[in-house]
Automatic annotation (TrEMBL):
Cofactor: Zn(2+)
EC number(s) recorded for this UniProt protein: 3.5.4.26, 1.1.1.193
Source organism: Aeromicrobium phragmitis
Protein name (database record): Riboflavin biosynthesis protein RibD
Keyword entries, A-Z: Hydrolase, Metal-binding, Multifunctional enzyme, NADP, Oxidoreductase, Riboflavin biosynthesis, Zinc
Protein backbone atom coordinates (compact mmCIF):
# COMPACT_ATOMS: atom_id res chain seq x y z
CA UNK A 1 0.00 0.00 0.00
CA UNK A 2 2.88 2.40 0.68
CA UNK A 3 4.16 1.72 -2.81
CA UNK A 4 0.72 2.58 -4.17
CA UNK A 5 0.66 5.77 -2.09
CA UNK A 6 4.09 6.73 -3.40
CA UNK A 7 2.90 6.18 -6.98
CA UNK A 8 -0.06 8.50 -6.36
CA UNK A 9 2.13 11.16 -4.71
CA UNK A 10 4.49 11.17 -7.69
CA UNK A 11 1.85 12.79 -9.93
CA UNK A 12 1.93 16.60 -9.47
CA UNK A 13 -1.78 17.30 -9.96
CA UNK A 14 -4.82 15.19 -10.82
CA UNK A 15 -7.56 17.68 -9.87
CA UNK A 16 -10.48 17.65 -10.26
CA UNK A 17 -9.85 13.90 -9.96
CA UNK A 18 -8.28 12.20 -6.93
CA UNK A 19 -4.64 11.07 -6.72
CA UNK A 20 -4.71 7.27 -6.80
CA UNK A 21 -2.06 4.58 -6.96
CA UNK A 22 -2.42 0.84 -7.56
CA UNK A 23 -0.04 -2.12 -7.18
CA UNK A 24 -0.90 -5.51 -8.68
CA UNK A 25 0.54 -8.54 -6.88
CA UNK A 26 0.72 -12.09 -8.20
CA UNK A 27 -0.45 -14.99 -5.96
CA UNK A 28 3.06 -15.20 -4.46
CA UNK A 29 3.05 -11.53 -3.48
CA UNK A 30 5.40 -10.32 -6.21
CA UNK A 31 4.64 -6.98 -7.86
CA UNK A 32 3.30 -7.33 -11.40
CA UNK A 33 2.69 -3.64 -12.10
CA UNK A 34 2.42 -0.21 -10.47
CA UNK A 35 -0.20 2.15 -11.81
CA UNK A 36 -1.17 5.76 -11.12
CA UNK A 37 -3.89 8.13 -12.25
CA UNK A 38 -2.47 11.18 -14.06
CA UNK A 39 -5.49 13.42 -14.44
CA UNK A 40 -8.86 13.78 -16.17
CA UNK A 41 -9.27 11.67 -19.27
CA UNK A 42 -6.32 9.40 -18.48
CA UNK A 43 -6.67 5.77 -17.29
CA UNK A 44 -7.44 5.33 -13.61
CA UNK A 45 -4.70 3.76 -11.50
CA UNK A 46 -6.27 0.30 -11.58
CA UNK A 47 -6.64 0.34 -15.36
CA UNK A 48 -3.09 1.66 -15.76
CA UNK A 49 -1.76 -1.28 -13.72
CA UNK A 50 -4.00 -3.82 -15.48
CA UNK A 51 -2.80 -2.64 -18.89
CA UNK A 52 0.80 -3.13 -17.80
CA UNK A 53 0.15 -6.60 -16.39
CA UNK A 54 -1.96 -7.94 -19.24
CA UNK A 55 -3.03 -11.58 -18.88
CA UNK A 56 -0.87 -11.94 -15.75
CA UNK A 57 -3.51 -9.97 -13.83
CA UNK A 58 -5.78 -13.03 -13.62
CA UNK A 59 -5.79 -14.26 -10.03
CA UNK A 60 -3.85 -11.20 -8.83
CA UNK A 61 -4.44 -8.90 -5.86
CA UNK A 62 -4.99 -5.21 -6.55
CA UNK A 63 -3.78 -2.89 -3.78
CA UNK A 64 -5.37 0.53 -4.30
CA UNK A 65 -5.28 3.76 -2.30
CA UNK A 66 -8.97 4.53 -2.96
CA UNK A 67 -12.05 2.34 -3.37
CA UNK A 68 -12.34 1.45 -7.08
CA UNK A 69 -14.91 3.64 -8.80
CA UNK A 70 -18.23 2.21 -9.92
CA UNK A 71 -19.36 4.74 -12.50
CA UNK A 72 -18.72 5.78 -16.08
CA UNK A 73 -17.22 9.22 -16.62
CA UNK A 74 -14.53 9.99 -19.19
CA UNK A 75 -13.41 6.40 -18.56
CA UNK A 76 -15.28 3.24 -17.61
CA UNK A 77 -15.80 1.82 -14.10
CA UNK A 78 -12.66 0.41 -12.49
CA UNK A 79 -14.79 -2.27 -10.86
CA UNK A 80 -15.72 -3.74 -14.23
CA UNK A 81 -12.10 -3.58 -15.42
CA UNK A 82 -10.95 -5.50 -12.34
CA UNK A 83 -13.72 -8.08 -12.74
CA UNK A 84 -13.02 -8.56 -16.45
CA UNK A 85 -9.29 -9.00 -15.77
CA UNK A 86 -10.00 -11.84 -13.32
CA UNK A 87 -8.52 -10.14 -10.25
CA UNK A 88 -9.07 -12.34 -7.20
CA UNK A 89 -8.74 -9.78 -4.38
CA UNK A 90 -8.88 -6.01 -3.95
CA UNK A 91 -7.32 -4.22 -0.98
CA UNK A 92 -8.01 -0.52 -0.65
CA UNK A 93 -7.28 2.17 1.94
CA UNK A 94 -10.24 4.57 1.94
CA UNK A 95 -13.84 4.47 0.77
CA UNK A 96 -14.68 6.81 -2.10
CA UNK A 97 -16.37 9.90 -0.54
CA UNK A 98 -17.75 11.04 -3.90
CA UNK A 99 -21.32 9.65 -4.09
CA UNK A 100 -21.05 9.51 -7.88
CA UNK A 101 -18.19 7.00 -7.80
CA UNK A 102 -18.89 5.19 -4.52
CA UNK A 103 -20.18 1.64 -4.16
CA UNK A 104 -17.33 -0.16 -5.86
CA UNK A 105 -16.69 -2.51 -2.95
CA UNK A 106 -20.22 -3.93 -3.11
CA UNK A 107 -19.94 -4.51 -6.86
CA UNK A 108 -16.65 -6.35 -6.40
CA UNK A 109 -18.04 -8.49 -3.57
CA UNK A 110 -21.11 -9.37 -5.66
CA UNK A 111 -18.72 -10.55 -8.40
CA UNK A 112 -16.99 -12.94 -5.97
CA UNK A 113 -13.87 -10.84 -5.41
CA UNK A 114 -12.42 -10.72 -1.90
CA UNK A 115 -12.34 -7.14 -0.58
CA UNK A 116 -10.25 -5.75 2.30
CA UNK A 117 -10.36 -2.12 3.37
CA UNK A 118 -8.71 0.28 5.82
CA UNK A 119 -5.03 -0.50 5.10
CA UNK A 120 -2.96 2.66 5.85
CA UNK A 121 -6.21 4.61 5.87
CA UNK A 122 -4.78 7.62 7.74
CA UNK A 123 -1.94 8.07 5.24
CA UNK A 124 -4.36 7.72 2.34
CA UNK A 125 -6.76 10.29 3.85
CA UNK A 126 -3.91 12.77 4.20
CA UNK A 127 -3.03 12.26 0.54
CA UNK A 128 -6.65 12.56 -0.57
CA UNK A 129 -7.60 15.54 1.61
CA UNK A 130 -6.99 18.27 -1.01
CA UNK A 131 -9.43 16.44 -3.28
CA UNK A 132 -11.80 14.91 -0.75
CA UNK A 133 -12.38 17.83 1.67
CA UNK A 134 -15.21 19.09 -0.55
CA UNK A 135 -17.00 15.77 0.05
CA UNK A 136 -16.04 15.39 3.71
CA UNK A 137 -16.74 19.00 4.77
CA UNK A 138 -18.60 20.59 1.84
CA UNK A 139 -15.82 23.09 1.13
CA UNK A 140 -12.45 23.21 -0.65
CA UNK A 141 -9.17 22.31 1.05
CA UNK A 142 -7.20 25.46 1.98
CA UNK A 143 -3.40 25.70 2.04
CA UNK A 144 -2.01 28.97 3.40
CA UNK A 145 1.46 29.98 2.29
CA UNK A 146 3.47 32.78 3.82
CA UNK A 147 7.03 34.08 3.84
CA UNK A 148 8.47 35.87 6.86
CA UNK A 149 11.60 36.84 8.69
CA UNK A 150 12.60 34.90 11.81
CA UNK A 151 10.69 37.43 13.90
CA UNK A 152 7.48 36.63 11.98
CA UNK A 153 7.22 39.75 9.83
CA UNK A 154 6.17 39.57 6.18
CA UNK A 155 6.61 43.24 5.22
CA UNK A 156 8.68 46.21 6.33
CA UNK A 157 7.03 49.27 7.93
CA UNK A 158 6.93 50.97 4.51
CA UNK A 159 4.99 48.02 3.06
CA UNK A 160 7.79 46.50 0.98
CA UNK A 161 7.80 42.69 0.96
CA UNK A 162 9.74 41.53 -2.14
CA UNK A 163 11.80 39.50 -1.69
CA UNK A 164 12.02 38.20 1.88
CA UNK A 165 13.06 34.69 0.86
CA UNK A 166 15.62 33.56 -1.69
CA UNK A 167 15.20 32.27 -5.25
CA UNK A 168 15.27 28.61 -4.14
CA UNK A 169 12.24 29.14 -1.92
CA UNK A 170 10.42 31.03 -4.64
CA UNK A 171 11.00 28.14 -7.06
CA UNK A 172 9.85 25.69 -4.41
CA UNK A 173 6.57 27.60 -4.11
CA UNK A 174 5.83 26.95 -7.78
CA UNK A 175 5.74 23.17 -7.21
CA UNK A 176 3.13 23.59 -4.47
CA UNK A 177 1.10 26.09 -6.48
CA UNK A 178 0.98 23.61 -9.35
CA UNK A 179 -0.78 21.06 -7.11
CA UNK A 180 -3.75 23.41 -6.56
CA UNK A 181 -6.62 24.40 -8.81
CA UNK A 182 -6.94 27.96 -7.44
CA UNK A 183 -4.55 30.64 -6.14
CA UNK A 184 -6.16 33.26 -3.90
CA UNK A 185 -5.16 36.67 -2.58
CA UNK A 186 -6.94 39.66 -1.05
CA UNK A 187 -7.46 42.94 -2.83
CA UNK A 188 -5.03 44.67 -0.45
CA UNK A 189 -2.18 42.33 -1.39
CA UNK A 190 -2.99 42.64 -5.09
CA UNK A 191 -2.97 46.43 -4.94
CA UNK A 192 0.25 46.50 -2.92
CA UNK A 193 2.32 43.98 -4.91
CA UNK A 194 0.59 43.63 -8.31
CA UNK A 195 1.24 39.85 -8.31
CA UNK A 196 0.47 37.63 -11.28
CA UNK A 197 -0.71 34.70 -9.09
CA UNK A 198 0.36 32.08 -11.61
CA UNK A 199 2.49 28.95 -11.77
CA UNK A 200 5.86 29.57 -13.42
CA UNK A 201 8.63 27.33 -14.70
CA UNK A 202 12.32 27.27 -13.77
CA UNK A 203 12.96 30.31 -15.98
CA UNK A 204 10.19 32.27 -14.19
CA UNK A 205 7.92 32.05 -17.22
CA UNK A 206 4.20 31.35 -16.71
CA UNK A 207 3.03 27.89 -17.72
CA UNK A 208 0.45 27.63 -20.54
CA UNK A 209 -3.10 28.79 -19.82
CA UNK A 210 -4.48 25.23 -19.71
CA UNK A 211 -2.07 24.34 -16.88
CA UNK A 212 -2.82 27.37 -14.73
CA UNK A 213 -4.97 27.31 -11.58
CA UNK A 214 -7.82 29.80 -11.43
CA UNK A 215 -6.84 33.13 -9.84
CA UNK A 216 -9.14 34.28 -7.02
CA UNK A 217 -9.18 37.89 -5.79
CA UNK A 218 -11.20 38.45 -2.61
CA UNK A 219 -12.44 41.77 -1.23
CA UNK A 220 -14.63 44.76 -1.90
CA UNK A 221 -11.94 47.18 -3.10
CA UNK A 222 -11.81 47.84 -6.84
CA UNK A 223 -8.72 46.58 -8.69
CA UNK A 224 -7.80 48.54 -11.85
CA UNK A 225 -8.04 46.38 -14.95
CA UNK A 226 -4.41 47.02 -15.91
CA UNK A 227 -3.13 44.98 -12.94
CA UNK A 228 -1.37 41.75 -13.90
CA UNK A 229 -3.95 39.56 -12.20
CA UNK A 230 -6.23 40.41 -15.14
CA UNK A 231 -3.81 39.42 -17.88
CA UNK A 232 -4.57 36.51 -20.21
CA UNK A 233 -2.15 34.08 -18.63
CA UNK A 234 -4.81 32.45 -16.41
CA UNK A 235 -8.53 32.75 -15.61
CA UNK A 236 -9.46 35.18 -12.82
CA UNK A 237 -12.49 35.22 -10.52
CA UNK A 238 -13.39 38.23 -8.35
CA UNK A 239 -15.29 37.46 -5.14
CA UNK A 240 -16.59 40.69 -3.62
CA UNK A 241 -17.08 39.66 -0.02
CA UNK A 242 -15.09 39.76 3.21
CA UNK A 243 -16.51 36.56 4.67
CA UNK A 244 -14.43 33.33 4.37
CA UNK A 245 -17.42 30.96 4.33
CA UNK A 246 -18.96 32.89 1.43
CA UNK A 247 -15.65 32.72 -0.42
CA UNK A 248 -15.45 28.95 -0.07
CA UNK A 249 -19.09 28.54 -1.09
CA UNK A 250 -18.33 30.48 -4.28
CA UNK A 251 -15.29 28.30 -4.93
CA UNK A 252 -17.45 25.19 -4.53
CA UNK A 253 -19.76 26.59 -7.22
CA UNK A 254 -16.71 26.84 -9.48
CA UNK A 255 -15.66 23.22 -8.81
CA UNK A 256 -12.52 24.21 -6.89
CA UNK A 257 -11.07 21.46 -4.71
CA UNK A 258 -7.77 22.91 -3.41
CA UNK A 259 -7.13 26.62 -2.97
CA UNK A 260 -3.67 28.11 -2.37
CA UNK A 261 -4.11 31.13 -0.06
CA UNK A 262 -1.29 33.59 -0.61
CA UNK A 263 -0.88 37.29 -0.06
CA UNK A 264 -2.53 39.41 2.60
CA UNK A 265 -2.30 38.94 6.39
CA UNK A 266 -5.86 40.18 6.84
CA UNK A 267 -7.35 37.64 4.43
CA UNK A 268 -5.21 34.87 5.93
CA UNK A 269 -6.24 36.01 9.41
CA UNK A 270 -9.93 35.81 8.52
CA UNK A 271 -9.52 32.20 7.34
CA UNK A 272 -7.31 31.38 10.34
CA UNK A 273 -9.83 32.81 12.82
CA UNK A 274 -12.64 30.87 11.17
CA UNK A 275 -10.72 27.58 11.43
CA UNK A 276 -10.72 27.22 7.65
CA UNK A 277 -7.00 26.66 7.01
CA UNK A 278 -6.20 22.98 6.57
CA UNK A 279 -2.44 23.25 6.00
CA UNK A 280 0.17 25.96 6.13
CA UNK A 281 3.53 26.22 4.39
CA UNK A 282 5.79 28.84 5.90
CA UNK A 283 9.13 30.01 4.50
CA UNK A 284 11.37 31.66 7.11
CA UNK A 285 14.26 33.82 5.96
CA UNK A 286 17.44 34.02 8.08
CA UNK A 287 16.90 37.72 8.80
CA UNK A 288 15.16 40.08 11.22
CA UNK A 289 13.12 43.20 10.54
CA UNK A 290 12.36 44.29 14.10
CA UNK A 291 9.25 46.16 13.00
CA UNK A 292 6.75 45.84 10.18
CA UNK A 293 3.67 43.81 9.32
CA UNK A 294 3.07 40.34 10.73
CA UNK A 295 2.38 37.43 8.42
CA UNK A 296 -1.01 36.90 10.08
CA UNK A 297 -3.59 39.23 11.59
CA UNK A 298 -5.45 37.08 14.09
CA UNK A 299 -7.75 37.67 17.04
CA UNK A 300 -5.56 36.32 19.85
CA UNK A 301 -5.46 38.55 22.95
CA UNK A 302 -3.88 36.23 25.53
CA UNK A 303 -1.72 33.11 25.72
CA UNK A 304 -4.91 31.13 26.20
CA UNK A 305 -5.57 31.87 22.53
CA UNK A 306 -2.50 29.94 21.34
CA UNK A 307 -3.45 27.76 18.39
CA UNK A 308 -2.17 24.16 18.48
CA UNK A 309 -0.19 23.16 15.38
CA UNK A 310 1.14 19.80 14.23
CA UNK A 311 4.41 20.21 12.34
CA UNK A 312 4.65 17.62 9.57
CA UNK A 313 7.87 18.68 7.80
CA UNK A 314 10.86 21.00 8.34
CA UNK A 315 13.70 21.40 5.85
CA UNK A 316 16.21 23.82 4.37
CA UNK A 317 15.35 25.37 1.00
CA UNK A 318 18.45 27.26 -0.03
CA UNK A 319 19.23 29.68 2.82
CA UNK A 320 15.63 29.60 4.06
CA UNK A 321 13.67 27.17 6.23
CA UNK A 322 10.38 25.63 5.06
CA UNK A 323 7.89 24.51 7.70
CA UNK A 324 4.75 22.55 6.82
CA UNK A 325 2.06 22.02 9.42
CA UNK A 326 -1.58 21.37 10.20
CA UNK A 327 -3.45 23.84 12.44
CA UNK A 328 -5.63 22.53 15.22
CA UNK A 329 -9.13 23.91 15.86
CA UNK A 330 -9.57 27.46 17.14
CA UNK A 331 -9.22 27.40 20.96
CA UNK A 332 -12.14 29.72 21.57
CA UNK A 333 -15.64 29.81 20.15
CA UNK A 334 -15.13 33.44 19.19
CA UNK A 335 -12.19 32.50 16.95
CA UNK A 336 -14.32 30.14 14.89
CA UNK A 337 -16.96 32.62 13.76
CA UNK A 338 -15.14 33.90 10.69
CA UNK A 339 -16.40 37.47 10.83
CA UNK A 340 -14.38 38.53 7.78
CA UNK A 341 -11.54 40.97 7.45
Amino acid sequence: MRRALDAARAVPRTLPNPPVGCVLLDPDGRALAVGAHRGPGTPHAEVDALQQAGAAARGATAVVTLEPCDHTGRTGPCTQALIAAGVAEVVYAVEDPNPVGAGGARTLLDAGITVTTGVLADEAKELLAPWATRYWHNRPFVTWKYAATLDGLSAAPDGTSKWITGPEARRDVQHFRAECDAIMAGTGAVLADDPRLTVRDADDMPLPYAQQPMRIVVGETTIPNYYRVFDRVAPTLLIQTREPHEVLAKLMENDIHHVWLEGGPRLAGAFWNAGLIDRFIGYLAPAMLGSGRAALEGEATTLADLRPITITDVRRIGPDIRIVGTPGPPPREAMGKGEGY
